[in-house]
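queue> holo job accepted (arginine)
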Amino acid sequence: MPITTTSADFVAWFRSVAPYINAFRGKTFVIAFGGEVVSDGKFVELTHDFNLLAALGIRLVLVHGARPQIEQHLAKNNLGDTYHQGIRMTDADSMQCVKEAVGRVRVEIEALLSMGLANSPMANADIRVAGGNFITAQPIGIINGVDLMHTGSVRKVDIAALNDRMDFGEVVLLSPLGYSPTGEVFNVTLEDIATATAIALDADKLVFLMDTDGVQDKKGKLLKELTIAGAQAVLSGKRKLPDDVSLYLPCAIRACEAGVARTHLISRHTDGAVLQELFSDDGIGTMVVESTLNTLRAATIEDVGGILHLLRPLEAEGILVRRNRELLEREIARFVVLEHDHRIVGCAALYPFPDEAAAELACLAVDAQCRDRGYGQVILDHMTGLAKTQGLKKLFVLTTRTAHWFIERGFSEADVAALPAQKKSLYNWQRKSKVFVRKI
Ligand code: ARG
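queue> job finished
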């Protein structure tokens, strides 16, 4: 938050993250980042954020990469960097470099996670880092006649051991290596380790820190949320995707299909990206989920509280007519609610007048925090569809303040006389609402 933030803003902001703090306590997050994060000197800020997550009771598995460091080591030893179909070939000499590079990166990360300087976010931190032979790997083997030697893939994750460490409050740090029952070491990609571990642990989140801001559409606009199907569509499209996206998006799909609730692809270049992604509704990057977080459904009596909460501010401003709880309870069957992430963020009610083949769309409301996400349109479309299935031909609204919104969506002003007879008799002449009608 900026230093100029008033205390009221600060308090409001802090309260707004309480639902996430509650939801995340005791949950398991796997967070993966490349060796670039360490070599770029950005890791200090990131450790502060990991420290905060750990302090909030989140069970953390960190997975680090070491690609730039390995490349440096290979170059120093005059060893070539050989790739076959995008996979690094690791012969015995290169494996020596891999071990050295990975070891160094790991030590640096452990050192930074051990910081506890007063006057820094790490004061009193006391993070315990756990490492070990949690990952069993197997050789990738021979692909099209080329033996990849010490390059491996994950065969098994020792979840009992990982859970033991986390039960003790330790943060697990996994390196991009795996061991085999024959005592060999394999060079494994960080994305394979992270994805396999998230799946094995049935983690609640898998997070990849990457070079781009997330996944973008053709026009370069950030796609904030992707379903599995949406992510597959991005991958099968014709356009050339940034390397990181081609690398991590398939992992997100794999994790999601295997039951990891959410995979987040966020920028490693934005300070605090992890916090912004995790502790705000909107996030900062791309989130891949099994199916969309938004549901539009018929309201039930349990929703009355949520609807009232949504309507109160609009009633106070005079945008909507005041409805009391009893009235809402009586008319709840007319309402639909839009939920985002299990929270009611929008509602509307439909009152049909079959004699006139018309319906009133009433109480259309969207949570102020969720403006500009097109939710109003989603609800309007749904209500239009609902009215159509009842054989109705016209939709009308009464409004004092939101005329433009409806005009932009094809409604035109009508006379009070045009209202269905029953509605006309109830018209509130003091409120002087305008009537807008649209054929459907
Ligand atoms: N903070 C929430 C979470 O961690 C929502 C994040 C939404 N992010 C997004 N890119 N749409 O689950």
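queue> The radius of gyration is 28 Å.
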